[in-house]
Fold this protein.
Amino acid sequence: KGKRAFIAGVADDNGYGWAIAKSLAAAGAEILVGTWVPALNIFESSLRRGKFDESRKLQDGSLMEIAKVYPLDAVYDSPEDVPEDVKANKRYAGATNWTVQEVAESVKKDFGTIDILVHSLANGPEVSKLLSETSRKGYLAALSASSYSYISLLKHFLPIMNPDGSAISLTYIASERIIPGYGGGMSSAKAALESDTRVLAFEAGRKKRIRVNTISAGPLGSRAAKAIGFIDMMIDYSFTNAPLQKELHAEEVGNTAAFLSSPLASAITGAVIYVDNGLNAMGVGV
Ligand code: NAD
């Protein structure tokens, strides 16, 4: 019987979320995605108009099917949390039921259960500021969008996850090593995400034998990464200094997510798995 995956954080065909969706689809999973509300219209119309058809192609020549796209803003847990100005915002007005709780309820209503939960989203409004110059508001916003959003997703989806399921998030080595330029509390948000991965692995493991892991991915020129501003430099740095001097493909992260969600990884939980051409293992640049 095929598995069903919900992937939060897909709004185009460039990021890790899209690549993970493809690898899971290639392995036979049914794909549901959660798309940030302000990006929903463009994503859905591009899908409809065939703009992604080339990148929907799987190894066997078939096209990845997305069974349903759910609007999602993972910064809000339930309708009571949504401020008036957001409700009134033009970019939110057309969509409904996009808080985490409501999305989980909709998925339950539409499909019953899922087996795989993927968190592939992050946001830090002050990412271009030094940590020491970050405001309280900016820091808490980075943690809300990039770390707590994962706790909230797991909390609301756990009741509809089948036993032996898998939850995966994406992290970055700036959590444990100094990466100047990854500011605004984003380094702190990733440190929280990695620590939470261990605690959530314990809790979800004991409750439902669900495995919780995070992939520490190398640099990729996604939309989110381009917004940070230093991604080309990080890609060059990795190419020069990593043990494997090759481009890092989003597909390599996607395939790791598929492995981690499969029975092949049945004893792996609470882990940070590096998919970065080995850059994390270097002590100096060469
Ligand atoms: P991406 O732009 O493809 O994905 C980020 C997504 O988050 C976007 O689709 C955006 O719409 C969504 N998003 C932002 N705020 C949201 C919210 N409040 N609610 C719902 N969705 C929201 O970029 P990506 O680089 O593939 O990022 C995916 C994950 O990979 C992130 O956790 C990122 O930190 C991580 N990561 C990226 C890199 C890299 O170099 N690109 C490296 C390591 C880890």
User: Anything to note?
Assistant: The first helix runs from residue 16 to 26. Strands lie at 4-8, 30-36, 66-72, 114-119, 161-171, 211-217, 272-275. The longest strand covers residues 161-171. The chain has a mean pLDDT of 97.
